[in-house]
Amino acid sequence: MKVLSLISSILPYDTAYAHCDIPCGIYEPTPLQIAAHTVLRMSQLLGEHTQMHDVARVIRVKEDHGSTVEKELMTLKNDYFKPEHYEANPQLEKLLQEAVGLSAKTRQKVDVDLAKELVEKCLVISEIFYKTKGFEPIRISSGFPTEGELVSHK
């Protein structure tokens, strides 16, 4: 056992996290949409704040929610969407890649237009998600200061 302890103390490793170690079947795109709207709102707020403390807090929230966007996208991509979903929605793979790329870009800079594009991609992915569940997706007002929409279903 001492050899394993020695090796793990010398070699770097990352802890792996998963949505669920057991295929639970519980997937929902709402956290993805809320996180994307938060990235947008924080991008908007960065143009309004000048106090260093406020700017630092807004950046931290933007970073955290950008990470949430990527985590939620990867959960849907790796755990929920299956080959039949990609066959029925040929644009899905590209949408997922573009949304992850936009999330990274919105974390690297302050660009409201990029953040709006991220929100829209997440909404389209959410619409596809609900269709794969046999629901009719609908867009509703988010009620957020971003004045955008959320995707739900009938």
Task: Using brief descriptors, characterize the structure shown.
two-stranded antiparallel ribbon, 6 helices, 154 residues, Four Helix Bundle (Hemerythrin (Met), subunit A), mainly alpha, single chain
How would you characterize the overall build of this protein?
The chain is mainly alpha-helical. Helices cover 64% and strands 6% of the residues. The protein has a two-stranded antiparallel ribbon. The longest helix has 29 residues, at 52-80.
Give the SSE layout:
Layout: H1 2-10, H2 30-46, H3 52-80, H4 83-88, H5 92-108, H6 112-132, E1 137-141, E2 149-153
Antiparallel strand pairs: 1-2
Quick structural summary:
The protein is mostly helical. It has helices spanning 2-10, 30-46, 52-80, 83-88, 92-108, 112-132, and strands at residues 137-141, 149-153.
Structural class: mainly alpha
CATH class term? Mainly Alpha
- Based on Cα principal axes, name the global outline: flat
Helix content: 55-70%
- CATH topology grouping: Four Helix Bundle (Hemerythrin (Met), subunit A)
